[in-house]
Every structure is written in structure tokens, then in C-alpha cells.
């Protein structure tokens, strides 16, 4: 990456042993809109705030939650354009796996390869780390899985996690409410309540996005109407 | 003489009831001269997956090494064995990579997939998969093997009967082919065990 004048890495160690660029990337993530994920016994739910800069923006055209394969989806906190690039690369890697093995890529493998891409950008010439943290939700032969991937390229498997603004309140809320045998429907309610905790203004189907994957292994983004139904149930 | 007939080979795999058997001859020749009478054509990828490689022996060796390499990395990354169907897709992809300078091999893949169902398939030298429900054949004795298997095959054979049938089919076919023979190697694989036997046939 980069021509000969920029073939050195912009991400270099500080004397204290930190990679300052990655710390700054995490700050960028921490000031992004809240997103969260919950792994249930029979599926995974991921959700995010969708605060648009103006009421004139066509909210249907903004899709913060994307699918990577029919059975794996992803949401982010941080910089939208960086997210788009990662989604594109991950989709390509998933398809390459399928082309070689004629089998759907397992969630762990896709997460590992995406994390490897993110790590590359912390050690290559002329590039900066990605300013997003991803929450990858999938259902494969190993069951429902939820992974978080950070700008450094480290990834963790979570039972429930949150990212972005308000992350500590959201995580505390999730810690209190999470049980190992929670079902998908309950998890969706919990996700909505967690988002509500830190939400400024009136929450509705138009300013949050929710997606689920159940035992049918089909990643589905809920429509605003479906979200409104869940919101009504939660009231 | 065609490049596929340089070393001589006979390979066959057959499906039974929750089991499969794969057999090969043991001759390695250089055109009409016999060099070895104990040549291994069938290799184990893992306990439930075998591959036999007919055709040019050097390409068979290299292809086997490449496949073992890929499978070992797969095992390390995914912490599981490859399913036979997945492996067959991998073999097909590897062969097609060399579409305009191919490996002169015809592989025969046999394995037990999920639910212990037997899976067999063969591909041509550039990766066209051929799945079959009963038997697949490869090698210089291929045509005779087709005839013998067609005549002797019965569906849902138990391991012992499958062994008898496959041995008879192999030995009968290699007798009609001057480039393969000198006995046989047969593996019978069930969900619980793998039995390996050497067959004694006409030593010519």
C-alpha cells in the first residue's frame, strides 16, 4: 500500500508500548452511535441507533446493519465509510471460501479473516487503522455466535456486548438482565430496552435498526413496522 | 502411448450399507517395464476419508502432497476434519487451477459424510466432478472395471459382501489390462473401523 515515500507504517509504537493510532481509533468508535448484540439460546439479535443528521435524510436509504452471508450479519459503531469497505472485503472472502469448498463459511473463520484485514491496516505502509468496531452475528453448525472485532484486529466472542456512546451503562444493563437460557424473543426485548436507556428523544422504528438470526439460519433485518410492534410490546 | 497410460493403474470405489470400499492395483510401471509391485495409490486423508489417485505417478504424488497440506491447515484453522463433499470440491478447484497445464491424474474420492452416509466421487484430470450412488472407477483398467462393477454391484451390501464383490471386480478387470495388476489393495471403511487388506491375484 502507498508509493515508495509512504511505505513505512503510520501506526508506530509509543515509548509506553501503546499503538497510539489504535487508541485514537477506539476513541472514534467510542463516540459513534450505540450498537449492541445479544446471543440467545436459539439465535442472535443485533441492534443500533440510527440517528440521522437531519429530518430531510431519507432514512430508508441508510442501512447500518448489513448481511455478509445468508447466515451471518454485522453492525458497527464508528465511521460508516470504513464499515462499508470492511463489509465489501468480508463478503468477498466469504464468497471465495464458498467457491473453493462449496460450503458456507463458518462464523469463526469469517471473523478471523476480517480481523486479519483490520490488523493489516495497523502494520502496512501509508494506511491508517479502521475507525470501526464490528459486532458479527451468525448461526452455523456450532450454533448461534456473536463476535466483536476491534480496530486493532483483536476479536472476542460475547454472550452480550455493546459499543459506541453510552457503552458502560449499556453493558451494566446487559449484565444485569442476561441469562444463559434467554430466548430470541426475550433477547429482542432486552436489546430494545438497552437502547432505550441511553436514547435521546423518542424511540421509534425509524431511528433504530434491529436484525436477528434464528434457528432457520437466515439473517433478517427487521422492517420499521416490525420494530414498532416490538416497541409496543415493550411498553 | 498416452501420458495417462505411462505408469498404469486401476482404481475403484464402491458404496455399501453405511460403509464404502476403495481398492487399487499395486503395479507401478514405466510403459511396459514393471518397476514396483507394492505401489500405494490410495491415501488416507482422515479416518473417514480416502483418496485414490490414478494416472501419472509423479502427478499423483504431488497432488496428494498438496491435498494433505491443504487438509492439515484446514484442520488447524477450523478444528475439524473436512467433509468428503467439501474435500471433493477442493480437489476439483485445485485441478482446475491447472486447466491449461493439468495434472495427469484421475482421482477417486471416497468417504463417510454426516450421518455415516457413504460418499464417492471421481473427477477428470481438470476437475469435472462425477458423483455416483453405486461405484466409480479410474485408471487404465477403467473400461473393464465399469463392466465388472456393473455386473457384480448390488445396493446395500454389508461390509463382508462388499469386500468380496469389490475384490472380484478388481481382480477380474486388471487381468484384462496389461498395465495394471500384481495384486490389489483394498480398504473397507465403516463408521467404527477401517480394514485394510492385500489381495493376491495373477502376478503379471
Task: Give a description of the structure.
The complex is a heterodimer of chains A (235) and B (204). Chain A is of the alpha+beta class. Chain A contains 6 helices and 10 strands; from the N terminus they run αββββααββββααββα. The longest helix of chain A is centred in the middle third of the chain and has 22 residues. Helices cover 31% and strands 32% of the residues of chain B. Chain B is built from 4 helices and 12 strands; from the N terminus they run ββββββααββββααββ. In chain B, the strands form 3 sheets. A 5-stranded antiparallel sheet of chain B has the order 10-1-2-11-12, with helices on one face. In chain B, strands 5-6-7-8-9 form a 5-stranded antiparallel sheet, covered by helices on one side. Chain B is globular, with a radius of gyration of 16 Å. Chains A and B meet through α2 and α3 of A and α2 of B.
Topology:
The complex is a heterodimer of chains A (235) and B (204).
Chain A: H1 20-30, E1 35-40, E2 43-49, E3 66-69, E4 72-78, H2 80-101, H3 107-120, E5 132-140, E6 143-149, E7 155-157, E8 160-163, H4 167-177, H5 184-197, E9 208-213, E10 219-221, H6 224-234
Antiparallel strand pairs in A: 1-2, 1-8, 2-9, 3-4, 4-5, 5-6, 6-7, 9-10
Helix pairs in contact in A: 2-3, 4-5, 5-6
Chain B: E1 10-15, E2 20-25, E3 28-30, E4 33-36, E5 42-46, E6 49-55, H1 57-78, H2 84-97, E7 105-112, E8 118-123, E9 129-132, E10 135-139, H3 142-152, H4 159-174, E11 184-189, E12 194-199
Antiparallel strand pairs in B: 1-2, 1-10, 2-11, 3-4, 5-6, 6-7, 7-8, 8-9, 11-12
Helix pairs in contact in B: 3-4
Amino acid at each position: 500500500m502507498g508509493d515508495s515515500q509512504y511505505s513505512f507504517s503510520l501506526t508506530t509504537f509509543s515509548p509506553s508500548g501503546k499503538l497510539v493510532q489504535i487508541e485514537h481509533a477506539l476513541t472514534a468508535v467510542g463516540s459513534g452511535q450505540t450498537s449492541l448484540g445479544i446471543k440467545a439460546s436459539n439465535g442472535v439479535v443485533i441492534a443500533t441507533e440510527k440517528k440521522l443528521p437531519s429530518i430531510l435524510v431519507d432514512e430508508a436509504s441508510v442501512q447500518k446493519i448489513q448481511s455478509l452471508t445468508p447466515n451471518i450479519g454485522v453492525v458497527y459503531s464508528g465511521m460508516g465509510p470504513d464499515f462499508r469497505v470492511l463489509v465489501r472485503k468480508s463478503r468477498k472472502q466469504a464468497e471465495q471460501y464458498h467457491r473453493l469448498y462449496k460450503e458456507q463459511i463458518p462464523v469463526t473463520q469469517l471473523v478471523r479473516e476480517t480481523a486479519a484485514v483490520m490488523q493489516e491496516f495497523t502494520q502496512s505502509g501509508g494506511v491508517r487503522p479502521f475507525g470501526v468496531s464490528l459486532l458479527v452475528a451468525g448461526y452455523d453448525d456450532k450454533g448461534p455466535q456473536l463476535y466483536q472485532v476491534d480496530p486493532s484486529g483483536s476479536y472476542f466472542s460475547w454472550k452480550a456486548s455493546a459499543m459506541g456512546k453510552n457503552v458502560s451503562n449499556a453493558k451494566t444493563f446487559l449484565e444485569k438482565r442476561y441469562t444463559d437460557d434467554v430466548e430470541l424473543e426475550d433477547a429482542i426485548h432486552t436489546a430494545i430496552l438497552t437502547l432505550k436507556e441511553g436514547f435521546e428523544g423518542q424511540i421509534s422504528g425509524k431511528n433504530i435498526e434491529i436484525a436477528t438470526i434464528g434457528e432457520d439460519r437466515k439473517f433478517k433485518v427487521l422492517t420499521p413496522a416490525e420494530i414498532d410492534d416490538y416497541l409496543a410490546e415493550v411498553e | 502411448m498416452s501420458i495417462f497410460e505411462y505408469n498404469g493403474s486401476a482404481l475403484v470405489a464402491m458404496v455399501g450399507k453405511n460403509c464404502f470400499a476403495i481398492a487399487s492395483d499395486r503395479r507401478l510401471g514405466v510403459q511396459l517395464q514393471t518397476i514396483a509391485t507394492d505401489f500405494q495409490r490410495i491415501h488416507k486423508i482422515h479416518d473417514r476419508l480416502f483418496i485414490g489417485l490414478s494416472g501419472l505417478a509423479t502427478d499423483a504424488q504431488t497432488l496428494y502432497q498438496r491435498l494433505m497440506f491443504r487438509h492439515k491447515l484446514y484442520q488447524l484453522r477450523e478444528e475439524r476434519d473436512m467433509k468428503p463433499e467439501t474435500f471433493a470440491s477442493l480437489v476439483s478447484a485445485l485441478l482446475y487451477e491447472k486447466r491449461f497445464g493439468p495434472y495427469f491424474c484421475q482421482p477417486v474420492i471416497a468417504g463417510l459424510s454426516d450421518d455415516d452416509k457413504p460418499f464417492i466421487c471421481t473427477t477428470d484430470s481438470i476437475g469435472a466432478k462425477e458423483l455416483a450412488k453405486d461405484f466409480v472407477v479410474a485408471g487404465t483398467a477403467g473400461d473393464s472395471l465399469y463392466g465388472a462393477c456393473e455386473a457384480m454391484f448390488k445396493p446395500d451390501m454389508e461390509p463382508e459382501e462388499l469386500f468380496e464383490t469389490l475384490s472380484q471386480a478388481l481382480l477380474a478387470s486388471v487381468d484384462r489390462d496389461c498395465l495394471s495388476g500384481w495384486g490389489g489393495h483394498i480398504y473397507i471403511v465403516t463408521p467404527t473401523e477401517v480394514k485394510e487388506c492385500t489381495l493376491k491375484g495373477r502376478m503379471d
